[in-house]
Amino acid sequence: MKIRNGFVSNSSSSSFCIYGVSVDKSSIMEEKTFMDFAKKEINVINQNDDDFEINDEDLNFDMINDILDAILNDFNLPGSYGPYDWNTAYIGRSWQGIKGKETADEFKENVQKNIEEFFKKYLPGIKPDECQTHQEAWHD
After folding, report:
1. Residues 103-125: pLDDT tens digits?
2. 7 within a domain of the structure (yes/no)
3. Is the pTM of this model over 0.85?
4. Residue 2 domain-assigned (yes or no)
5. 8 Å CB contact between 21 and 80
6. Is 26 part of any domain?
């Protein structure tokens, strides 16, 4: 039997391990503050198209992920994680993202603070869970 160690280039599986929170994407889409911001951003992107005007029904999970990714970078939370067809967004930082001499406790503290600021500004109607390590894997 052969055992392969290391990266498999033809694999269609993915995984992640982050410290942060999970939130249901439908809850995000019900949050007026976030949806108003998302619609505004998408309309700005398409401002050269006079006939373009997005409404709530036009927003989908792919658009939500794109807007989430852009906003989360501003909070040093470099992305939401999970396949786009999942109903859950994972918000946090990868454990590989520990910077320089940052300790694990400092890392956790910074992630928690950034998540609280993000939710306060964009998702004020949702109380984030306590941060924890989330790890997921999937295969297409």
Report:
1. 999 999 999 999 999 999 999 99
2. no
3. no
4. no
5. no
6. yes
Checking if the pLDDT of 8 tops 60, the result is no
- Tokens representing 48 are 């050269």
- Burial track 91-116 (b if 16+ CB lie within 10 A, e otherwise): bbbeeebeeeeeeeeebbebbbebbe
Look at residue 21 and tell me if it is in a domain: yes
User: Domain limits at 101?
Assistant: 16-139
3-state helix/strand/coil string of the chain: CCCCCCCCCCCCEEEEEEEEEEEEHHHHHHCHHHHHHHHHHHHHHCCCCCCCCCCHHHCCHHHHHHHHHHHHHHCCCCCEECCCCCCEEEEEEEHHHCCCCCCHHHHHHHHHHHHHHHHHHHCCCCCCCCCEEEEEEEEC
Residue 2: the pLDDT is 45
